[in-house]
Records
---
Amino acid sequence: MSIDANFQIQLAEFSSEVELKLAEGEVLAVLGPNGSGKSTLLRALSGLQPIESGVIKIHDVVVDDAEHSIFVMPEHRHVGVMFQSSELFTNLSVLENVAFGLRSRGTKRNIARVNAAEWLERFSLEQFAQRRPTSLSGGQAQRVALARALATNPNLLLLDEPTAALDVRAKAEIRRDLLRLRQQRPVTTLLVTHDPLDAFALADQIIVLEEGRVVQSGALDDVASHPRSRHIADMVGLSLVRGEVRDGALTTPSGARLVVPADSPSGLSVASIRPASVSLHRAEPEGSARNAWMMTVTDIDRHPERVRARLNGPIPLLAELTPSGAEALALTVGDTIWASVKASEVTVTPDLGT
Amino acid sequence: MSEHRGTRARSVGLRRPPLAIIAIAAVAIAFFALPFIGLLWRVPWSDAWSLLTTTSSLTALRLSIETSLWATALSTIFGVPLAWVLARYGFPGRRVVRALCLLSLVLPPVVGGVALFAAYGRRGLLGDSLFEWFGLRLPFSAAGVVLAQTFIAMPFLVLTVEAALRGLDQRPEDAARTLGASRWYAFRRVTLPAIRPALIAGAVLAWARALGEFGATITFAGNFPGRTQTMPLSVYLALESNPGQALVLSVVMIAISFGVLLSLRDQWLGGSTEAGSSR
């Protein structure tokens, strides 16, 4: 029971060749810039666009095989899709939207409605049941779209940039719901995003697409420590620190303290730090950087243009240096070194937990 | 203060068209309005009711309404799938097919009637076969009136619905498919509600056109009272024998057409603007 896709699609600008495998219950994040072929991948998996060569299997069933002229229509694939812009049906109520999947499979109206009401309740959306989708906020609409996709019990859940069109608060709500879902009833999920925070929150594995090709794949941490291109480095390098913000500082569960921008809202939060914002020093730093910790270098990735060092300590971090900077510090694995981050370089988003 | 008033006056001046243009537009409005005013002026109002309720008037009125409703139904049944194919599927020669289907929109209706005769007439392409197989004689029958009206009116519906389908966001339909909807179910519950305004507008326009059809009908179906003599035909004939009746029937037709136009909101006539957006 898994997803096994290996296929090619001809696009207007380029030919997309994608190979991916996904074990049952696993969450795979597909990262890539706009126009990298992410949407095409989703359209191919959901059956909205036939592939031109290769094979797609979903749970060991071939759903698209160009050579053997096999093509399973989208309505028979049991693939749930949550679209970037919700795509709720504006002529139907929220409840009817969620019931749509069962109704289109021939379930009686009353039964489909009861089921839809249960899904709305699961996402605390029951108060919107009779509302029109146009009266919902972006975040509410996305959560209804998620409930609608799940109500059909899909074999595979496709999430197309689920948080891209939302504000910070709504982004956090969607991530919370997806995380809860993962814990309560794991669904094999493919998450397409250009927001690494989505990937960090949910994914076991990631693949990176560029111009229709998989340029790197693996566990998120591995890809972040050993990015194969500048672009990947920029996209996946974030270090995330969870904790509670109070009086301009975040305290982690283990007691470490991270000074954050003064205007950060209090409460449970996730702080993200870009590797390039981390400075390394042999001696304890002085001056404006108020965040400084003694760290141990656990891994070094050397690249002609940049060096990435994974640091373990009170707050585990990924640091990026220039090759000359790394040489000047004579950085080696096992070293003890000072790492510092300016408070202004820390980004804080609310963490709604699970 | 005076400066403020100056800018205000200037901006009002910008919004108002030049007087010369207003004058020309007024001439154009008068050009359209005068014939109707003249008609209303000539109508023998004292006899209007009796003229309208003569047997011949009522027969023509009933026939017109029946045939035009049939033509509207046929235009919808065949026109919506045609619009769908034209809007959604790229096939070689689509532009030619599209032009062919809309040809009767610009053709003199008389020529359309002659062409219908060549196809379905007794000596026409299909005329004999239709009679042998189905016992159908279309020319000079009420069914022939419906055929002629459909031929002329359907393009109005096709144009309107096609524009709406072209402008329609297809993503809700995609979403429906991934939720398990067949193409038919997705069309019925997602696409159709989204294009409903355009569909209504197209059907109303087609109906109004069918109601007023003259040239193709008289050529193909002839002018038999009670069988093929619709309102426009009886107006034309009454002009010679009974001008008062012609005027009264004209007023009825004008009232119907005017009502149709007023009932259509502007954007429906424009095609895709309202129907195109799905949210």
Note: DSSP finds 15 helices and no strands in chain B.
---
Amino acid sequence: MTTTRGFTGRGRAKADERRVPPGQYVTEDFPVLSAGPTPHTPLDRWTLTLQDGGSPVGKWTWEEFQALPRTELTVDIHCVTKWSKLGTVWEGVTIDDLLAAAGLEEPPAPYLMAHCDGGYTTNLPLEDLLGGKGLVATRFDGEPLAPEHGGPARLLVPHLYFWKSAKWVRRLRFMEHDEPGFWESLGYHIYGDPWREQRYDGD
Amino acid sequence: MTAIETAPPPARAGARRLAWRQAEVVERVAETRRATTLVLDVPDWPGHRAGQHVDIRLTADDGYQAQRSYSIASPPEALRLALTVERLERGEVSPWLVDEARPGDRFELRGPIGGYFAWSVAAGGPLLLVAGGSGVAPLMAMLRHRAASGAAGRAVPARLLLSSRSFADIIYREELERLGSAPGGPGIVHTLTRERPPPSWRGHARRIDASMLAEVGFPPAAAPKVFVCGPTTMVEAVAEALVGLGHEPGRVKTERFGATGGG
Amino acid sequence: MSREEMCSMLDGNAAGGLLREVFAFEATAARITCAGCARMMPMGELRLYAIELGAILRCPSCDEAVVRIGRTPRGLWLDLRRAATIVTVSAGIRPESEVCIRDHG
């Protein structure tokens, strides 16, 4: 692979290795990467469902969801396409608070599949969502989350590659066994830890 | 059928999968303040059809790579490959190509790509070409190929409707004028969308719409082959208008560039 | 101007290079049937997303992900389950020489 004289690519800040996972570069942008067209679900039709087996164990309309305990998180996010964005500010409802609101003292199963408007899915272990590690986020940078970034609500799981932070989330389905979601079934890593550079299946 | 995992194809003689080749910049031609044509030497170039494109790949010192696609602006008859690139404000690759690339520079290229959006004189006409901004590049390859095909080319009626932001932004303006005024040359119609045209302007001064297409284009009964290329929103509006005028959807071929920019 | 800068939707033409890595034939002209709505069209007309990770080619009528490709350093992962048929076009000009490949998935 020969290098191209004078090409440096998008402004890439020198990465602080302690803060930025291997192979990543820091960006000031917020690139949009989507597997399909941006859905535009009106808020008066939006619901979020927790599902166990065939039945819902929790369901909230937008108003009901807004009434749940809110948490603000400032985190770094890491995309598998190698950009990292530091110090992003989000607000939403933690998965802990969601389970509590559904009356679940413990998750009914160890894994979860997030289902989203537009058909996107991604799988996660519950232990990577509890303890404040996961949020259903409705605000970014002090503003309502824009549709192209996953609004009205997206999952936020910042310690994993950002494809796990599923945009336009509508349903969280508990699973007994881990199953690959949209990208995981196309060769991307089933877990996706950026610190171990788990981008692809087999990494 | 479950998802099939494929290994990278083995290199073998006669393989039809595309390989990355080395392209060397031979010449740069400033087309407008935003657009540049790069003329390239590509060893063992297999030839192409007008309308096809190439993928190019640039590599930074630290190994970072960026890959983009560009239409081939040169006709199959040309000795060298030409790409016409418009600088996008927040682009990553286009600024290098438009402002930095100079003779002697090399980058990786693979192609030709695209059997769907391609035309040759043998495919016949009439030929209706509708372009927005730098979307004119693959259609220019078609017009240059037509011009290089002598009487057979002249026998295919052809028209180009080109939408540009302003007079100064019209890519290939002088060459289009020459092509258009040659005997048997294509009909060339311009429209400007942002700036007020000069007083002597004889073209249109608005976005392409159904009535402009009806006026400028061939009637649906002539069953023209239509190629539309440019920014996504423009291409969709034009394609919809053409179908609305009665053109057969299968004969309207589209190529969408990024969501912003262009005429 | 580049087809890919600053955008998340393009058409299947921009995936032409990647499709050539997958198929031995010129795929953008090949016609594909959407398993969602049965529309048949050239692959070049499918709407392309996620070119950074591979290619998701969607039906312009119903948005079904007809072709899904994941690009990894160790190979391409291909999911054609939502494509009902793919009709290849031979290199020659005669349309009678089409070959139909049916997917039984």
Note: The CA atoms of residues 46 and 60 of chain C lie 6 Å apart.
